[in-house]
Amino acid sequence: MAFYINTNQQDCSREISVLLKKCILSYPHHWTDLVFLCIGTDRVTGDCLGPYVGHRLSSFCFPGIYVYGTLVQPVHALNLCDTRKKILSRHPDSLIIAVDASLGQKKHLGYVTIANGALYPGAAVHKKLPPVGHIHITGIVNTAGMLEQLTLQTTRLSTVISIAEQISNGILLMIPQSDFRQTL
């Protein structure tokens, strides 16, 4: 199950909320904690979507919901493996939702994708990192093609923030609808 949501459309946060909840409800295993793993770095404009979403989510406190990866403490290529181990140790029965920026086709610029299955962080810049998450959310911040690292470095901050705001708002709309949480 994979969904594309245009963040330029009205009420896209509500659509993100509904579709994320749909993915969570379709997850077949029992879980007790919900973990948002927000991946990226604040040192590259196009890659700060995950930390910005984490920053927004971390300013709220919901029981049984945890956030890793913020602007102050980002989760990136250098600490992803250690953070992943920490999450599995602290939250062994968690449902992990990975959030990251991505590059895509020009027609999908500004879209959010939500899908079941692991996220492969760093794939756009040809990094070999372990897959993470049971569900993933990506924001398509720029176009893929040549010179991906330069593309991420020259991505407009306004594009990243706009997409991250819609993702954050969608998640925050979904969380109070706690009937999907199995034991929280």
Outline the structure in words.
InterPro entries: Pept_HybD-like_dom_sf (IPR023430), YyaC (IPR009665). GO terms for molecular function: peptidase activity. The chain is α/β, with parallel strands linked by helices and 184 residues long. The chain has a single domain, classed as HybD-like (Rossmann fold). It is 33% helix and 22% strand. The protein contains five helices and six strands; from the N terminus they run βαβαβαβββαα. It has a six-stranded mixed beta sheet, with helices on both faces. Helix 2 (49-58) crosses helix 5 (157-174). The longest helix is centred in the last third of the chain and has 18 residues, at 157-174. It is globular, with a radius of gyration of 15 Å.
Keyword list:
184 residues, alpha/beta, Rossmann fold, 22% strand, globular
Beta-strand percent range: 15-25%
Q: How much helicity do the residues have?
A: 25-40%
| Quantity of strands, as a count | 6
Distance between the termini: 25 Å
The CATH superfamily is HybD-like
**Integer average pLDDT:** 92
Radius of gyration: 15 Å
The CATH architecture is 3-Layer(aba) Sandwich
- Assign the structural class, choosing from mainly alpha, mainly beta, alpha/beta, alpha+beta, or little secondary structure: alpha/beta
Ranges where pLDDT stays below 50 over 5 or more residues in a row are 179-184
Pfam family, one: DUF1256
GO biological process, one term: proteolysis
Protein name: Spore protease YyaC
GO molecular function: peptidase activity
